[in-house]
Specification:
The chain has 318 residues and is α/β, with parallel strands linked by helices. The protein has one domain: Ribonuclease Z/Hydroxyacylglutathione hydrolase-like (Metallo-beta-lactamase, Chain A), CATH 3.60.15.10. Helix content is 33%, strand content 24%. The chain has a seven-stranded mixed beta sheet with strand order 6-5-4-3-2-1-14. A seven-stranded mixed beta sheet has the order 7-8-9-10-11-12-13, covered by helices on one side. The protein starts with a helix and ends with a strand.
C-alpha cells in the first residue's frame, strides 16, 4: 500500500471518527449568562435541549433577553429574540430565588409566552411572596396573591421524584443543596433517553455548610458516571482559594470543588472522573479574580476532569 493511499485512509478514518463523535452529542447548551455578578447583562442562565432540537429549558434565569441577543450576535441562533423567548424556551427551572438567578425571568415576563416555571416548594413560595405577587411585579402565574394573569404555570417539584418536562422529551429530578445553611438551593438532574446532565444552583461545600446534601447527591449520580451516562456537571466556583472560608456565603472555591470531587470519587472511583465534563459556573468578577480562579483550577486538577468555561451566547455540545 502506497504512502498516499495510507494517508487517504487515515484522513477518512479521522473524518469518520470526528463525525461519529459529533453524532454522540446528547445535549445542546446555550449559556445566556455565566457570571455570579455584578454584570446584570450576564447572570446565571443556561439553555439546555436534546441535541438537534430547539426544545430548550432554562436552568436559572438571571439573564434572558441580553443573553439571547448575544447568542444571535454569535450566530448560535438565527431566529429572532422573540422566537427564541416565546417558542424555543419551553420552561424555566429556578434553583433558588436570589435575584441574580431570577431577574431575567421577571423582567421578560410581559413579553413571554405561556409556559411552566419549575422550582422547589421553598423557592416557589419565595417567588410567589416576593416577586409575582401583584405588588413587586404583576402576578403572571396561576398561584399566589394578587390578580393571577395565568401566563405561567407554577409547578412545585418534589425532591428526587422524576417529572416530565412539558413540551419536551426530557425529564427532571430535583435535589436539595445548602446555600448558607439552612437556606436551600436546588440541583436539577435532566434526562433525555439514556443520557443526563446535572445542573447545580449555588452551593456551599458540605464541610463548610455542615451538611450532607452534596454527599447524598454524589451517591445518587455515581452510577450514571460509572456507566458514562452523565454528560456533564454544571457546578459553581465563585471565588479563588484566597477567599476566607467564613466569607464564602454558600459558594465554592477551586480547593473546595476538588474536595467535593474527592467525596464524589468515593462513590465512583477516581478513574471514573477522568475527562468528566465539569462546566464551571457563577464565577464572580472582577476579572483578576476570575483569572486567578481559572489558574488555580488548571494548576491543581487531581482527577483530570475536563474543565469547561462557558461563554455567553456560545453553544456547547455535551
Amino acid at each position: 500500500m502506497t504512502i498516499k493511499i495510507r494517508l487517504t485512509l487515515l484522513l477518512l478514518l479521522l473524518t469518520t471518527l470526528g463525525f461519529s463523535q459529533k453524532q454522540k452529542a446528547s445535549f445542546t447548551v446555550v449559556p445566556l449568562g455565566v457570571k455570579g455578578g455584578i454584570d446584570e447583562k450576564n447572570l446565571s442562565a443556561y439553555l439546555v435541549a436534546p441535541f438537534g432540537t430547539t426544545d430548550f429549558i432554562a436552568l436559572d434565569a438571571g439573564t434572558i433577553n441580553a443573553g439571547i441577543e448575544k447568542a444571535i450576535e454569535k450566530n448560535t441562533f438565527t431566529a429572532t429574540v422573540e422566537t427564541v423567548l416565546k417558542q424555543y424556551i419551553k420552561g424555566y427551572f429556578i434553583s433558588h430565588a436570589h435575584l441574580d438567578h431570577v431577574s431575567g425571568l421577571i423582567i421578560n415576563s410581559p413579553a413571554d409566552a405561556a409556559k411552566t416555571i419549575y422550582a422547589s416548594q421553598s423557592c416557589m413560595q419565595m417567588m410567589e411572596d416576593h416577586y409575582f405577587n401583584g405588588d413587586t411585579w404583576a402576578n403572571f402565574g396561576d398561584a399566589g396573591s394578587g390578580y393571577q394573569i395565568k401566563k405561567y404555570h407554577f409547578q412545585t417539584l418534589k425532591m428526587a421524584e422524576k417529572t416530565i418536562i412539558n413540551n419536551t422529551t426530557m425529564t427532571v429530578q430535583a435535589f436539595p443543596l445548602s446555600h448558607v445553611n439552612p437556606f436551600e438551593s436546588t440541583a436539577f438532574l435532566i434526562q433525555h433517553k439514556e443520557d443526563y446532565v446535572l445542573y447545580l444552583g449555588d452551593t456551599g461545600a458540605d464541610r463548610i455548610e455542615k451538611s450532607n446534601k452534596l454527599s447524598a447527591l454524589w451517591q445518587t449520580i455515581a452510577p450514571l458516571i460509572k456507566e458514562k451516562k452523565l454528560k456533564g456537571i454544571f457546578i459553581e466556583v465563585s471565588f479563588p482559594n484566597e477567599q476566607p472560608e467564613n466569607q464564602l456565603y454558600g459558594h465554592l472555591t477551586p480547593k473546595l470543588l476538588n474536595e467535593e470531587l474527592e467525596a464524589l470519587s468515593t462513590f465512583t472511583g477516581k478513574e471514573a472522573l477522568k475527562s468528566l465534563n465539569i462546566i464551571v459556573t457563577h464565577m464572580k468578577p472582577p476579572i483578576e479574580k476570575i483569572t486567578k480562579l481559572k489558574q488555580q483550577l488548571y494548576e491543581y486538577n487531581p482527577f483530570q476532569v475536563h474543565l469547561i468555561y462557558p461563554e455567553q451566547g456560545v453553544q456547547l455540545e455535551l
